[in-house]
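Re: duplicated header lines in exported structure tokens

Our pipeline writes sequence and tokens for each protein into one text file. With two proteins the header for the second block appears twice in some exports. Here is an export where it did not happen, for reference. First protein block:
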Amino acid sequence: MSVQSIREKINLALYDSKEGVLSLFKVGSFLVASLILSLLIYQFGFNPNLTVKAWILIAIKASFVFYIVKYLTNLLYSYKPTRFIKDSWFEGLLLLLILINGVTYLISNESLLNWLGRQLEFYQLENFYILFLQSYFFILVGIELGKASTHLTLLKMSPPKMLISSFIFLILIGTGLLMMPEMTSQIEYMPFFDALFTSISASCVTGLIVVDTATYFTQKGHTVLMLLIQLGGLNIISFATLLALFSKKGIGIKHQTILQDNFSSESLLSGKGLLGKIFLFSFFMEFIGMIALYFTWNPGTNEPLLEDQFFFSLFHSVSAFNNAGFSLFPNGLQNHVVQNAHSMHLILAGLIFFGAVGFPVIDDVFNINRIKKSFKSSLYKLKLSTRISLYTTFVLLLFGTLMFYFLEQQNTLNGMTIQGQLITSFFQSITARTAGFNTVDFSVIGTPMLLIFIFLMFIGASPGSTGGGIKTSTFTLIIYSALNTIRGKKRIEIEKRTISPELLHKAFSIFLFATSTIFIAIFILSISDGEKGILPIAFEVVSAFSTVGLSAGITANLSFTGKVVIMVCMFVGRIGTLTLAFALSSKMKSHNYKYPKAHLSVG
């Protein structure tokens, strides 16, 4: 009897039980991974005693028995075992290593990795192995969540509601993590309200704080903040979609619709195709930024702040690219250690620019096929949306730089060299639109410049970016519409392209909702915190709504009501006013008829 015929008999014998057994193992895999992940979070956030740590380690090792059995069961039920081994080679190799390591420990009372570490004089090999296993569980739970997220179509939730729910989920998880004892260095645990404010600020990549990030949190707390910034900046739905790609089912229409709206892609397919490029470019830029920042630190500096230069470089790279504005220096980049580190400021400015210009723009500018074709024909030049984003960004950046340079000569720029003045002006111009870093004291900046900063923050970044504001394209369309109205033109045309009425209506809706939200927030704060002054209040509200994070120094001193208003502004500004409006509104039935035109006196 051949091996093939034996295999066929086994498949026939197991056919009736296959679906039930494999489904049971899928549920068990998620439950076991979730349990171990919970134990790891407990160990990370509460620092239990050695006995509890030992039991957690035993639970981790024991759980792999389940995964070994699961892997062998999947192999047994597979119609093509060879193909299954090839497709799951990483999982199989890891489980084989775990099995060999465990067997050698039972036989010789010493694990294989511990023995290899002694032979190679690398005594931390076992510790790296345990760290790798812990990381594996985080990845495993993420993959299981990603696969589960492919069933979003079963939930009767629109894409805007799904996007809002994902941010609420991230904020609540972040709040719980920040309240763990190991996150803070000054008190036993962070109060709920402060943790909620900080979690919203990090998840919405804003940067407004009610505590000193540098001294209040431990490195574990800084790590949690960095993860919240990364997840919030690129949108947690995107991470779930990336993990869903591990599933053979792929991603559903709701996933693709959220991606299309969030990254301003032209179609569902382009949104799906853009996802991989977004993660590749984001992590590449953050890695390059981390390396560049690492070599800007002065090696002779004895500052205790810079003892862990690698982590400082990574944190600031992630914070800058995601336009978050969080810094590990007391008083931010205004701190004496880095206030005059102009090379560092330029690196951060570059990261801020690429994070704020928008992923669709980056994809268009650096598209190899388009670049090749553009040499042969002008038809393959940059898209209109790309040109609008780039032109508007450069104009606003130049405007902000020149205004800061001339208006702050006798104030915050006083005493600096010409080079320092230009770099400082440029850095504040680029960071004021989206990022929230500051190398000067914003509480002493003159009123004219504060008004200009409010204008720049309100416009914000480009669509499909990590920044906030009404976006550069919205601002451009409103300006063109106003100019065309003055000139008496009925259609809006930009570079031989006609702008549809629907797009124009959307731009005006965004502008209206944004100004209304900001006005209501300023009105409430003028009642609850009127003693702070109307200009600092307006500056704070626009900074929160546009997820910038700059402050005139009043955030921590706001009343309870004032902080709640700022939290709402950060949340609404991050998810977008239109997204919130679509989520709260009911569907309207469309009609094929239309009423006669009405004449109204306007202006």
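Second protein block, exported in the same file:
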Amino acid sequence: MGILLFAACAREGSVHFKALNKQAAREYLTPVRPGVPGGQPFWNVYSTKFTFAPAFDFPEMAGAEKYRFDLWYLDNLWREIYLPVPEKRPSAKAQLEKYSATSEPVASFTATSPKADLSPVWGKLPEGYYGLVVTAVDASGQDIAPVGTWEFLRDFPFCGPYPEPVRSYRDAALMALWFNHRQPLVQKIHDWDPDTLYESENVFANKFIGSVISSEVLMAQQIPTFRDECLENARKAADLLISLAQPEGTPLAHFPPTYYDSQILAGKARNDTRIGGTTVSDLQEMTMTLDALHAVRGYLNLYDFCGERKYFDEAIAILRTYDRLVDSTGFMPKKLYIKTGEGVNEAGALSGNLLTVIRRLRKQYDIRDFDGLADRCERWMNENAIRDFHMSAQFEDVSIDQHPYQNLTNITPNVYARYLLEKEAVSQEDLTVATDLLHFVEDQFIHWGLPRNADGMFYCNVPGVYEQYSCRISIDSSNDAYINASLSMYDRTGDRLWYEKARALMNTVVNSQAVTGEIPTFMGLQYGAPNRYFWINCSLRSAQTLLRFAEYEERLD
């Protein structure tokens, strides 16, 4: 402990955290892409925690000259708030009566619009839960009626320095790769038996098997002693994934499935059995559109390492299917029927990961066949997801039949911000959008600190990044997604605050790692012991990010 304390003190003196903390505090006074009547919608319809000063879509009232914003401090005890659809929420009048019956407001201000942001008082509010009521006031100063209400967590700001890592980033990466290598999913890849391959009932074929390929290739590169063994495992995994893919000539040619389920294969599952949040019949009939990119990355990584052309060709074949799936506007469905290739509904997939793969093909292999596809995807992102600031979750285990903005995520904005920042020529518009996206992620998904729960403990490891509104727990790969985007922002701007935010989150990943090398996927108390919910695709991302971060630290030192 003394060594870590000394290291933290030394770092504080060299990095000047007081200045960085003040910079962060100033930035938190500016709302993140607030809605504009008749223009961009208010994206925070279901938001319950804020680090940046929020603004809400409260209605104007006839006869109002101004609006009074009153905030009541509720408490500082951790809880999860999930907002119902707007029509089922308490009225502003009912909330005003409830708050007024117990205490006086702790902060108030007036504005000419009920949609004004909370910046006049935001910097003065201690961390904790608040109730807000906005009341219309007439020209004589008399209250007309309350027009809007919200309950939310005023979250902890960035305030460094944070704990130092217990081991080097490179050592943590190698430990994670070694843990991955020893998992049954990898060790049994030679004798595929889905009933014993993985401890859960199902295997996410693209994510898990695709990540076995990339993880084993990365371990072979980093620990050459195991080169031959890792290469054999990677080949077996790639060949298995290819064998599971849809045949040439079908609507989803060369796409491996989202799920590969042992219960289905054994004929034991009824069609109404729910696995991974969906029914078995759905597992058989549907796939997530973007999941095949895990396979693409695995095939390309294996090709780069061993030079076997068939893996490269398989990756290109999947990209050709994407080229057919994405229409002339750049739209592709988030979820597809396997037999027809048609979308399950009108929900669109956010194409940051696809754009990143296309850029890799162009830069690394000089393949320009998919430049038109990239143009279509980027146009759709700008004209839809960015315009409306709708960063919807793209996960297979969550319903896609939800209200707009009901389940936002950190992953898609992080990926797209990094894509924009790593262009050869970054425009001012690219930089502005990327900044907004990363501020949005921090606002909605990063906890720099947390209120304690009723037992006096922290709900999850902090600082940390939670995954989506439907999964409010720190996830290792969510940390990694923001870290990578933030490092790319640091490369573009040289602003040290971006780097220190990334470093604080990277240290949480390291300090969450078990002595076995496992980096737990779910970094929180309620998920129990490590390995209960271990996802190798997340661990792979952590190892890759740790190795990238190690290079930064070595340069800066």
